[in-house]
Specification:
alpha/beta; Nucleotidyltransferase, domain 5; 9 helices; 12 strands
């Protein structure tokens, strides 16, 4: 297959392929958005996803009047061994030669990375982590994921799993934490505690009341004792999970994104709690909210061709 060569140093296109929505952006040389669009993802139809992506690329290229480099962020990652997508919560894409199939349609190379990697890259290059050498970027939402950027370069690893922090067991696990099963087939993964669904599930397990993570946070602010206790446990679990990262990588900064990162108390609670678990006589690692919010993923995807 022959791929078209794309003119360098011009616009770059990024796509954030999510489970429920797909977003496209075109950045100019100053990393300013000159085109953007967000549409629902046809999550159960692989061919429809390919058709949607193709149409979004065509629309973006028509808007700017040139062929573009294309970067895509998606849940899951391409296996370096098989070339097939794996671990995506858009189930119809797992086991598919997504990169090859889309390149065949576009007749050019396509850059694909895990969505958390795209998030970390965006925040490291022109977000909350800029001016820091080692940036660990974490998405905490319906699931958890992370990416590592060192000196502006995304670290992928030989298995393409660098930053899969959410599928390690919660450190210093106690009986109070519970032991919920994870979709990956194991138990007590960090994701089962820190994700929005994890907070809700653990609250139900402890108190027998079905509340969403948003309701738990809101009612804790209103003084509900059970919700206050649940959030106290949550902050301690997050401190343990992030201390594990600091003990292994010692990043210059940790940047949080995803819906759970909007809980403002995280940034008040964590600095004092980290010292209980980090293997150091002091802890000064900044824990920062993402600069670009839920747009970081698509912005990072557009940067993949330069990384």
């Amino acid at each position: 297959m022959s791929h078209q060569k794309i003119q360098q140093n011009t616009y770059r296109l990024g796509i954030d392929l999510g489970g429920t929505k797909t977003e496209v952006v075109v950045l100019d040389q100053q990393n300013s958005a000159v085109f953007s669009k967000r549409v629902p993802t046809p999550m159960d139809d692989y061919d429809a996803i390919l058709a949607l992506l193709s149409s979004l690329v065509a629309e973006a290229e028509k808007a700017v009047g040139q062929k573009l480099t294309v970067g895509i962020g998606t849940p899951g990652a391409i296996s370096p061994r098989s070339g097939l997508l794996r671990n995506s919560n858009t189930i119809c894409m797992n086991g598919r030669a997504f990169k090859g199939d889309f390149e065949k349609i576009l007749q050019r190379n396509v850059h694909i990375q895990n969505d958390a990697n795209c998030f970390a890259l965006s925040e490291a290059i022109h977000g909350a982590g800029q001016n820091h050498s080692v940036v660990f970027g974490i998405i905490i939402g319906t699931g958890t994921g992370a990416g590592l950027v060192v000196n502006g370069q995304l670290i992928n690893g030989p298995h393409a799993i660098t930053g899969e922090w959410g599928h390690n067991p919660l450190p210093w696990h106690t009986q109070q934490d519970g032991n919920l099963s994870c979709y990956c087939g194991k138990q007590a993964c960090i994701e089962t505690f820190l994700s929005g669904q994890g907070l809700a599930a653990n609250f139900f397990s402890a108190y027998g009341v079905a509340l969403s993570s948003e309701q738990i946070v809101t009612q804790s602010r209103l003084g509900d004792n059970d919700c206050l206790n649940a959030m106290d446990v949550y902050f301690d679990q997050m401190a343990r999970a992030l201390a594990h990262v600091i003990n292994m990588i010692d990043p210059d900064v940790i940047v949080l994104g995803g819906g759970m990162s909007n809980i403002r108390e995280i940034y008040q609670q964590l600095p004092n709690r980290l010292a209980d678990y980090v293997f150091s006589d002091y802890v000064e690692t900044p824990i920062l909210a993402a600069t670009h919010g839920d747009a970081s993923g698509v912005l990072g995807a557009a940067l993949l061709s330069a990384n």
